[in-house]
Amino acid sequence: MKVLTIGSDANLFKADSPVAGRIKKYGALAEELHIIVFTKQGYQNTRLADNVYIYPTTSASKIFFIFDGWRLAKRIVREKKIDLVSTQDPFESAFLGIKLKKKFGIKLQIQIHGNFFQSDYWRSRPLFKIRKHLAKYCLPKADGVRVVSRQIQESLSQFKIPREKIYLLPIHEDYSKYLNNRPSFDLHRRYPGKFIILWVGRLSREKNLDLLIDSFKIVNRKFNQTVLLLAGEGPEKEKLKNQAKRLKLESAVVFYPWQDDLVSFYKTSDLFVLCSKTEGYNRSVVEAMASGLPVIMTNVGPAGELVKNMVNGWVLEKPGVLEITSALVTLIQNEDLRKKIAEQAAADVQKLPNEKEYLALYLKGWQLAQQG
After folding, report:
1. Which sign, positive or negative, has the C-alpha torsion 53, 59, 62, 64?
2. How far is the C-alpha of 106 from the C-alpha of 70, rounded, in Å?
3. Could you tell me which residue ranges the Glycosyltransferase subfamily 4-like N-terminal domain spans (predicted)?
4. What is the CATH number of domain 176-349?
């Protein structure tokens, strides 16, 4: 099978990035895998593996992504005799996929990695109404729709997609290192006598970290031996640092850059918290679970599907300062509950598909779309 995918992740041009590593494995499932990436100028065609080729649109502006992508896609489909197109969102790239399906008669899979249609965060974004109209036009015409969580699957009921065309397959990562590896350092040596609360990810607006810091202010007032570690980078970093400073939390809220050794962070912290407004899946939650770290999270991504409230985690139905504060205080005070949900979480992660099983499921998604 020759597959063309269309998306916007420029990290594919970094050969050592996690997404490039995943794509190489997907490439092994196909005769050829060709990938168009919406980019601005400054990128070059790249051969990621023997049969995996990446093409940037090198557009002068975002408004030209679709036009430049269409030009590239037509040439690739003609020259490479593509069997299946797989787009990485239900919006602009899906629109290109529909045009290719109509012009060349090839099958189309649309992948959805974000909970775009149930989230107030996405509904408030500029151009959302236009993008939703694109999704309404594209999704019913696809031969297959892959979603990464049950919440996303449920959100598609409004689009009148035949249920048999929707394929649920969460994002996969090799969690064995979090299950089995020993930490190379102990955060409690850096923060002796402290209760360590950890967050890991991209410091961006949808992660709701201002709400987390406001909640932590109350927690820290009650338990002054608590510390909040935020590991990651992103556009909100300076704003969040200023918030911590304004709340006089400079020594209690500590910012770390991206970490190569997250195992040690997960395994030597006391509690993990995620308070995002929206998530497609969220690997950090699963990494924390695999590491035996108890998790508090908002009702996003794997909540309700992998993370079950009071079984292997704490799921907040209506996140707010009081709700987050209450959950943090309860778990800080209740070591037995922390231990119970952490042990069950690690056991549940071990039941997830291994890499070989996952790749077989990924290929099945392509095949179902091709047969659709």
Report:
1. negative
2. 15
3. 34-170
4. 3.40.50.2000
- DSSP codes joined into one string, 61-110: SGGGHHHHHHHHHHHHHHHHT-SEEEESSSSHHHHHHHHHHHHH--EEEE
| Contact of 230 with 254, CB cutoff 8 Å | yes
- The domain segmentation of the chain, as residue ranges, is 2-172+354-371, 176-349
Residue 372: predicted pLDDT: 82
Please say whether the beta carbons of 258 and 242 come within 8 A.
no
Tokens representing residue 92 in the block = 């602009």
Portion of the chain with pLDDT greater than 90, in percent = 90
Residue located via tokens 């640092």: 241
Burial class (CB in 10 A: 0-12, 13-18, 19+), 205: middle
- The pLDDT tens digits of the residues spanning 303-349 come to 888 999 999 999 998 889 999 999 999 999 999 999 999 999 999 99
Whether the predicted model's global pTM rises above the 0.85 cut: yes
CB 272 within 8 A of CB 296: yes
Sheet order of strands, 271-274 included: 253-256, 226-231, 195-200, 271-274, 295-298, 314-316
For tokens 């090799």, name the residue.
174
Task: Report the C-alpha gap between 244 and 222 in whole angstroms.
Answer: 17
Secondary structure E strands in 204-262: 226-231, 253-256
